[in-house]
Amino acid sequence: MKPLLIHEDPTIVRSITNQLRNFRPHLQTMKEKFLLMDMGEYDSETHDFLKSSSINQIRKEYLSRFDYELKNLGVVNSSITDPMKDSFKVKLEGFLDTLQRIKSGEVLISHSNTRKLRFDELKFMENDNDFLVGSEAVEAMTEDEARLYLNTDEEIEFYEIVKDIETKGMELFTRMGSPEYFFKGEFLKLFNFSKDGIEVDPKFVNGYFRHKEIQERVSNRQKERMR
User: Fold this and answer.
1) Is the pLDDT of residue 26 over 80?
2) Fewer CB under 10 Å: which end of the chain, C or N?
């Protein structure tokens, strides 16, 4: 049987995506440290590589690129290349340290029960030079975090019974026309609950209508006095 969606809470997704405003300063710092390495522009391709790769893979990749660039420059004297490598490694490790803190979620402090926004849920928009939460990520977090499903026949049948009670309860609310019966839990006195089940309490039902008659008579008398 196809799962039945019974609830979706958009506030959960908003509480996650709204964390981007606190994420941005750290993302900007990470991007600036990347640019200090002179490994090209921070574009969507770079961003996707950083999202999908481990810190060790990223370190290996950029060290390899740096060695390749040195080789193309034709510089072989270690007295020249070693300081250049050391300087690059300092920049690389500074970048990786910030990236690791971003990937781990360490930079975000969550003040709610919702989970933290993840780096791999962000896209980099080159035209805007900014980060945003991708639409696919929004749909995924909605599915995972904000939707409640029932999966079996038994669950769905139970839910349908509860919904029937809800419908009848609203009808009862309208007929009684007395909110205090509901807000104070008085409507529960309409029923007798026992280990054997539930049944209507005829005395309370009768008493409700007798009470209603008295209220109507009092109201009518007050109206007559005001004439």
Assistant:
1) yes
2) C
